[in-house]
Batch of 2 targets.
Target 1
Amino acid sequence: MTKIVLIIADGLGDRPIAELGYQTPLEAATTPHLDRMAKEGICGQMHTIDVGVRPGSDVAHLHIFGYPMGEAYSGRGVFEVLGVGMDLQRGDIAFRGNLATMEGGKLKDRRAGRMSSSLVIEPGMKVQIEDVTFLLSPAVSHRVGVIMRGPGLTHDILDVDPHNTGEAPRRKLAKDTRKESQKTERVINAFVDHMAAYLCNHPKIKQLKAEGKPHGNFLSLRGAGEHIHLLSFKEKYGLTACCISGAGLYKGVARAVGMDILNVEGATGTLDTNLDAKVKACVEQLPKYDFVFVHMKFADSLAEVGDFKGKKVFIERIDKSLAPLLKMEDTVVFFSGDHSTACSLKAHSGDPVPAVFWGPRTVVRTDACTSFGERACQQGGMGHFKGLDVMQELLNLAGKQHLVGN
Amino acid sequence: MTKIVLIIADGLGDRPIAELGYQTPLEAATTPHLDRMAKEGICGQMHTIDVGVRPGSDVAHLHIFGYPMGEAYSGRGVFEVLGVGMDLQRGDIAFRGNLATMEGGKLKDRRAGRMSSSLVIEPGMKVQIEDVTFLLSPAVSHRVGVIMRGPGLTHDILDVDPHNTGEAPRRKLAKDTRKESQKTERVINAFVDHMAAYLCNHPKIKQLKAEGKPHGNFLSLRGAGEHIHLLSFKEKYGLTACCISGAGLYKGVARAVGMDILNVEGATGTLDTNLDAKVKACVEQLPKYDFVFVHMKFADSLAEVGDFKGKKVFIERIDKSLAPLLKMEDTVVFFSGDHSTACSLKAHSGDPVPAVFWGPRTVVRTDACTSFGERACQQGGMGHFKGLDVMQELLNLAGKQHLVGN
């Protein structure tokens, strides 16, 4: 039984950088394992959503997993709360919450110095506003998963988070005069006020403030999404699947499509994440699962602060970590990013991402590519393809594709 | 703020021509500026509508601007009358009118020797038939913009123009027995009869006839289209935009999507058009606009009469005119055609058009292309793409693309 491994190096692609001799961080990096995969596999350029379209990470992963956003996506909050391990029911509205620091009615720090939310938010914490229950759970650093459960609510509202420091949090959230919009705005504002009072009076926050340290005296909400039931990987593809990821969002998307979540020690989603442990865990899980998804976060985070040197070095770490995978037999591996993140823009870009399908010599048709990179993969035998093509091609290579017609 | 320039060389692509050593006119032409753009930019092959589809100029431009024909197109007349500067109201039906020469009830010359319509048609001229007002305005050479305004009309009718000389103009125009089809046929026939009488009795036409010169004694109608309100470039992309074009149709499409129309002296849309003046005007407008569209017409017209040598020479003139643009900084330029026009067919073809996206070295990923042409661009890093992809990719390269998802 051929196994499938899907590895996403977040924000892998980039643009030419003058200081790197007009190479991208990936092109400048020394990547013997990726180069070997390019030589033994078939390469291409992936437009995760479509040509020129600039994908968010949530929608990008949905598309790579084969779930078009029009059917599968209403807002990021859904995947954030699933990633924290919270469970969603039909009609639930989910948010990404951020501890933030307010001063004089304005947001001074939208992330409260990335303080740990577990200092002030207990798992299972609930707040009741009218007939609506808010459920909270601490997430990585300043993040908090928030579910809003009750009748007559909508996810089609603005973020409380104004997305700029120095601005007041939004209180006008309704986009229209519908009853559900008005009720949702009212209960969110009451909840936000309740949480501000709770945080300001919390001994830990008082202590941090007294010590002059970053302290979260406000809970900001963003990315409202309504739970949409998705077919699981087992139902859609007949594959048992597991996810190895440090960062919560990707665990959330994986949970939404029914993958088991494997928590690997040292897999933090931050710069010090243990990539070797992730790949080791992947190799260990392959006898148990048909499909293993491995997410490697931090190249994206480095590009978002413009650190092209750091991104290059991190990509070299990714490359090193892949060695054990290339010893696997009867395994098909897809390696790419979810999108490009341009160091020059400090943001996701709509440029395609280099990609490789690697597997046994009798399975994968090789091509002209002998190294892996944005421009090297322009010669790839897969040409240009979309995120929605990835699972179809993996099923095909693994000999698990069903017949269309007869 | 990165600026965007979109240049369309009408009918740019072609097929191999024996007399040119099986090169196309573009391949045979000496084009140092385009070759430089190919080398410094990223190339590809554009299927304006779709693979093998043979695009009309109106639909081709709509697609390049990002407006799919199913939503944005009902007939060419709309863009012809907008291009003449006429204004459309909801429910208006617009036509391209042609002065033609009739003899013995048959069309002898469908273009009346390309005589100037302004000799006989005054701007603002109106004809009333029943409760329907026909508005007329002279256009380039034999062309006349015609708007039909009134209740109970349809654009879904046949052309009066039979599209072949030696045939009688059509009088059966209705495609069905619906009341609006019957009324539209009746008022058009009455209008056409009225105009034939008007033209035959016009002193100028009598004079031309007496002198044995081409004379338009008939006004033929074609390309009925109903006005469809389109989002402007500002609304759709957030871009202020202007159009530099000699030919009316392209001005019309540009007006339909809310571009400002810039009239450049010497930009005639004919063989003697001043391409240098157009590019100079483009460079001058760039500080004022986010987006400038430049249309260069005549390679298409030469191919439509099979003049491959003339097309080659005209392409060399286009190439020369581009020099000032390549000195622009912080500017992304797209250069292609709206479709191929094959000299061998003397008609538009469904072959893809070579295309290049050019811009700063830190923005555009280069590729293997070092020259610009139909076959050279087969190596391009953009691969095959559609007209509808162009604006998305330009927004992406200019760093103006919004995020899809989160």
Note: The CA atoms of residues 121 and 375 of chain B lie 47 Å apart.
Target 2
Amino acid sequence: MIRFGRGELEGLGSAFPFPAGRAFLLSSPAVLGFHGERIRAALSGRAAVEIVFEDGETAKTLETLRGVLDAALAAGIRRDDFVVAAGGGTVTDLAGFAAAILLRGIAWYALPTTLLGMADAAIGGKTAVDHPAGKNMVGAFHPPAGVLIDPDLLSTLPPRRFREGVVEIFKTLLVGSGEAARRMAGRLEGIAGSGDADEYLEEAIRVKSAVVERDPRERGERRALNFGHTLGHAIEAAGGFSRWSHGEAVAIGAAAALRLSASLCGFSPPAAGAIARELVAFAGGGPALPAWSGEIEGFLSRDKKNTAAGAVAILLAGWGQPVAREVTPAQWKEALESLRDA
Amino acid sequence: MIRFGRGELEGLGSAFPFPAGRAFLLSSPAVLGFHGERIRAALSGRAAVEIVFEDGETAKTLETLRGVLDAALAAGIRRDDFVVAAGGGTVTDLAGFAAAILLRGIAWYALPTTLLGMADAAIGGKTAVDHPAGKNMVGAFHPPAGVLIDPDLLSTLPPRRFREGVVEIFKTLLVGSGEAARRMAGRLEGIAGSGDADEYLEEAIRVKSAVVERDPRERGERRALNFGHTLGHAIEAAGGFSRWSHGEAVAIGAAAALRLSASLCGFSPPAAGAIARELVAFAGGGPALPAWSGEIEGFLSRDKKNTAAGAVAILLAGWGQPVAREVTPAQWKEALESLRDA
């Protein structure tokens, strides 16, 4: 159940048919600093317990999770209590995973406060923490019982964080809504500058919700939403989850995947080239491009989606037409390096 | 999918339609000492990776789980690999939970080596680890894709471990198969002495599989299988998971629940009294009975099944007729103390 709209936050307390128990508000110091008072007011006293933990990819660990589990159990959490996770993707990923395994699973509700979280992380129930072996290696499919998306919360978001949401929206439209992706292409900088992505965000939410409803466990169609993420996750991990933001890494991964889409899958080379250039520029330009490394190759080989049959990536046969293709490390290397000369 | 029968272990390698990847054999030093060679032979070379961890309730912790996750990820586990968990309930609980959260869930297969595991723990997908706040506080519903039950494996089981399986079988029959429970009543010592519980085990497996198939997430009917476990878990936890075995604690918990069933739910008092006496004697007799304590009361108040509405326990209105009833700590105290005078 998704509520979308500016000003929706005020109605959080009655937005969903919550369970009978207490609300456990899970969030970060930064998010509570910006929005804590309004969230508590919106929950009108139902936030009986607050558990605060650091956000950011470097804190999305089994250790942080352990602290959250300890705090929730020390507060005597019960099966009819519920979690309200307020924050960016790392907060909702970790809080959602905690909800998935506390007492073998309790209900949770997502209140994403970043554009990336609104477009992607908070929808669809993929919860997880990272592990030294890779991103999101330990987790569960545990869909939130409700997601409240209020773009007004984005007014306090730093520009770099807003930009990564723009990338994620564009990625979703590229695989699931060719017409909207065509409209958005060429306008990434303009949207980031305006701070208003509502039109594209709403379409991305529509696409993502429909896909995960048809394929909640990512057995087929949902895999398409990983477009840009195969190489992107490897770049992000190789940079220690701090050198490149998730959005920057996905922008570069998507640009490389577009190159391969043109050479392997029949995506129009001029169009693919133009989008790839726009994505690279949007991610910081040529100097931001990572050099191919054994580390990137190592993380690629440990991608969760790999099977004994090999490493399958999502490419595009055209706007809104994802296809699964086996891609070798050598092909990724060539595609990544080709972005320098673009 | 359950395979049951003496000698079934030899056919493990082809007993189920396994995924395409590698088998990760998760087990304990003790189990591999007794059965390792036969299990490896039965898997005919598919056990590519072995991860060994201590069994027993005191080792069923988040720390042990962490070690298993680290080892599996270091070995590059993939989504088409699978877990084979060989051991007692603590091994299958922990290994099943690891399978539930590795890469957001991979397939697992249970090879229970204790009577308790065969009758209960390995069936139905309730996986978990314990937490200082209580037993099974962190876990997931993640049913095994296959369970192979070969009573021949029980020949090496110490008598005390065999006895706790006898209790669990009797508990299952009491709530789900009145006729078989009547047959088993009065014969607990005889069955334990013979080392052959096959007849009752097979019926308990039938009852439990049918119940969990109808109610996998324990939203209703399945709760009945917790008969004896409300007070039993509290006794077990108060004894540091070592003073009373799970089966002994459940025997005492079931005896107390039978007393309450007679006084509150219309179960025949002479029959309830006779079974309660048999269970207490089977668990070690009067000297084994725990004294009521604040610790037991504390664990009762944190029972996972509690809601804001109160603490509901499973009692019996008759043989094979479970009912859910609110039970106060004072009532549990009285029932526990009444067992001394029996």
Note: The mean pLDDT of chain B is 94.
